[in-house]
Design a protein that fits this description.
Structural class of chain A: mainly alpha
CATH architecture of one domain in chain A: Orthogonal Bundle
Oligomer: heterodimer
Order of helices and strands of chain A: HHHHHHHHHHHHH
CATH architecture of one domain in chain B: Orthogonal Bundle
Helix content of chain B: over 70%
CATH topology of one domain in chain A: MetI-like fold
Distance between the termini of chain B: 50 Å
Number of helices of chain B: 11
CATH topology of one domain in chain B: MetI-like fold
Shape of chain A: globular
Number of strands of chain A: 0
Chain lengths: 259, 289
């Protein structure tokens, strides 16, 4: 029995080399200058540049708005699919999952083309629409999943004990679907707060998001900007860490692995 | 008595009407959302059957773009379709197959090891395992970019494959672990007691038990790898290596998509639709059994 424990060692080594060490490198780069000396200058630069701070807050706001819209649109859809006596629920579920399997760049570009065709200008509205469009399935799927697994007899019990439809929803169904809501929020918020390609394509580079700021530091900034980019990455890592800390991790993982 | 009956009937009828009304509203809402979700996709599919450079400008039905896509040559305009489209398609598939295979082997071995560990070290490794799943692609990409620079490895095909193994393996571990928990832990020992070498016991006992989890981990890895943009973008280097995602990104930034991408997109969409329907029918048959 004991010797099979060693079978995990190659992967542990792999994780240390390609997951832990790279994250440590971000930490080191963030707190050093290009000459390799310790400095806080990268963070000072971020917190003293109004443009950078504004971009950061703006990105958080856009991600938050996208997540809320996806939740408001997605919950009813998941609820209907999981509970209503539809004739074709399986087909519906497939249709809602299908877009998740298509490359998000292609989907984003398809939206861009749609806006162009109808002469709608690209900008903030297009950005939020496109983000919701890209990530709505990621909200619907986990909620649908938890609602479907829900024990129906609990609803009947609540009805029998005198609860009206509204009470059944707020006191029974909503709390029971909370894990799905958590994972949905995480699966929408995480990619929207960190994206750079979607914003570039949907606004023709008119709007810069925090992700684009990081990408530019590494892409166009040259060696001098890497340390600054690492500091920005560390700030994003903090946001991601906080979000996943508050979310229900195990459920999110299991939902992702079903995708 | 008669009056009561009609009252009850009326009540039942009213309920029935309420129910159908709610159902109609529910259906309408779902179809409205689906219309929003599929409008852009349908637009691309429709305009894959016309030859105009920009979408929305219908210049008559033709399968010219499909012909161009398959022959690599536009016989009307007498120009070649961008060869990078085919290179990127080839590398997308190559990277996906290699990365998914490595991730499946590495992840299955790791799952067996983790399953036999004590709770404490198991938790530690599972935490490490969850990092690449939680990390957004841009952070995975940048951290690996810094690593390859730090180690002095020039970026290219190998670094992209390593990066893809990094974010695929955790999902393989997670799809194999439940199979191990369900499995009778004694059959591996029994095989050893009956004289099998550890290698034989692995091939003849463990692998057949874990196979379904390995397959779903492999398929998931394939789709994750094919879909990836962010990680590939930071680890591919500047030697001209492109996957479909990075090709599309570069193409879109240059302004205007290569028209042949429209039929390609339509074909990919159709393939995924058919695959999903088949998978759904198969899993429903299995649950019925």
């Amino acid at each position: 029995m004991g010797s099979r424990r060693t079978w995990a060692w190659p992967y542990v080594l792999f994780l240390v080399l390609f997951v832990v060490l790279p994250l440590i490198l971000i930490l080191i780069y963030a707190f050093t200058n290009p000459q390799g000396h310790f400095t806080l200058q990268n963070f000072v630069q971020f917190f003293s540049t109004i443009g950078a701070i504004n971009t950061f807050i703006y990105s958080l706001a856009i991600a938050l708005i996208t997540t809320i819209i996806c939740l408001l649109l997605g919950y009813p859809a998941a609820y209907i699919m999981a509970t209503a006596e539809l004739k074709i629920p399986a087909v519906m579920a497939i249709l809602f999952i299908l877009p998740m399997w298509i490359n998000f760049l292609l989907r984003t570009l398809a939206t861009v083309e749609l806006f162009n065709m109808f002469g709608i200008p690209l900008g903030e509205g297009a950005l939020i629409y496109g983000m919701c469009y890209d990530f709505l399935p990621f909200m619907i799927y986990p909620i649908y999943n938890t609602l479907q697994k829900m024990d129906r007899s609990l609803i009947e019990a609540a009805h029998d004990l005198g609860a009206n439809r509204r009470e059944v929803f707020t006191k029974v169904i909503l709390p029971l679907s909370a894990p799905g809501i958590y994972s949905g929020i995480i699966m929408v918020f995480m990619p929207t707060v960190s994206t750079f390609a979607i914003a570039e394509l949907l606004t023709r580079n008119k709007i810069t998001l925090f992700g684009s700021l990081i990408q530019r530091a590494f892409g166009e900034g040259g060696l001098q900007m890497w340390n600054y980019g690492a500091a920005l990455s560390l700030i994003m890592l903090l946001i991601i860490g906080l979000t996943s800390f508050f979310g229900n991790n195990e459920d999110t993982e299991s939902n992702r692995s079903i995708l | 008595m008669k009056q009561q009956l009609t009252n009850a009937q009326q009540e039942a009828r009213r309920r029935q009407r309420d129910l159908t009304l709610r159902q109609v509203a529910a259906h309408t809402y779902l179809w409205f959302l689906l219309l929003l979700l599929y409008a852009p996709i349908l637009l691309i599919i429709v305009f894959s059957f016309t030859k105009s450079k920009v979408l929305g400008n219908w210049t008559g039905f033709t399968v010219q773009l499909y012909e161009n896509l398959f022959t690599g040559y536009d016989s009307v305009a007498q120009v070649h379709v961008d060869p990078n489209l085919y290179h990127s398609l080839f590398y997308t598939l190559l990277i996906a197959v290699i990365a998914a295979t490595c991730a499946t082997l590495l992840g299955t071995l790791a799952a067996i090891g983790i399953h036999n560990m004590r709770q404490k070290s198991r938790n530690a490794i599972q935490f490490l395992n969850s990092i690449p799943m939680i990390n957004p692609d841009i952070l995975t990409g940048i951290s690996l970019f810094l690593l390859f620079v730090f180690l002095g490895i020039s970026r290219g095909l190998v670094t992209v494959i390593i990066a893809h193994i990094v974010f695929c393996t955790p999902y393989v571990v997670l799809s194999v672990l439940p199979r191990l928990t369900k499995m009778n832990p004694n059959i591996y020992e029994a095989a050893l007691d009956l004289g099998a070498t550890p290698g034989q016991a692995l091939r003849k006992v463990l692998v057949p038990e874990l196979w379904p989890g390995m397959i779903s981990g492999f398929i998931l890895s394939l789709t994750l790898s094919i879909d990836d943009f962010g990680v590939t973008f930071f680890t591919k280097g500047s030697n001209g290596l492109e996957t479909l995602s990075t090709f599309i990104y570069a193409d879109a930034r240059k302004g205007g998509l290569t028209p042949e991408l429209r039929p390609l997109f339509s074909l990919i969409f159709l393939t995924i639709l058919v695959l999903l329907v088949i998978m759904n029918i198969r899993s429903r048959k299995q649950t019925k059994k």
